[in-house]
Amino acid sequence: MPEIIPPEYWQRRTTLALARNLLGKFLVRANGEARMITEVEAYDGESDLASHARAGRTRRTAVMYGPGGTWYVYLCYGVHEMLNLVVGPKDWPAAVLIRGVEGCHGPGRVTRALGIDRQLNGTKSHPAFGLWLEDRGVKVPRRLVHATPRIGVDYAGPVWAKKPWRFYFDPAELPAAARKRAATANSSRPARRAKRAAGS
DNA sequence: TACTCGATCGGA
DNA sequence: CCGATCGAGTAA
Fold this sequence. Notes:
It is built from four helices and ten strands.
């Protein structure tokens, strides 16, 4: 039932729709850890003054110009690794920042919790690289998805700083069936690992 | 090469 | 409210 989402899925338009689609999907690591995405932020095109791509194509932003389904990981404030998924077709610089997963809020905390760093920058969302996305059957109803301005982008000026491109939802508000699916998906693999570890 | 400033977080 | 901590981008 868990379905690995191929990188190509993220290569279409539009950035905002793909950002919302990311909610309820699972970030999965090679060690079996899986976390449901609950909060994201979209960065779309060079005209978006909050985006790193506002500076155009540079060594740092080159990955954003690549095809969707690629990880963009960078160091923020010299301290925090930030995980983004590049979205959209090749040559359109856009990315979605993973700001939160179930039980873990804050982009810097998400990467720390999952052991993600810049080594993954430029790799695809695919098991071959140790970090990928799965659809585990959790559908997030539209009415549960909230949109607000993005966090920490005042430098972008009033127009772009106010774009309501941060999306999040509360897993506790999911319908019972979806909540159960999310809980099962979250616990199954780690539980098996825990048992193995305890037995050995 | 020098300088500025972060898509943040935790502690005072 | 402030310091940490370092690399990208820009100007020189």
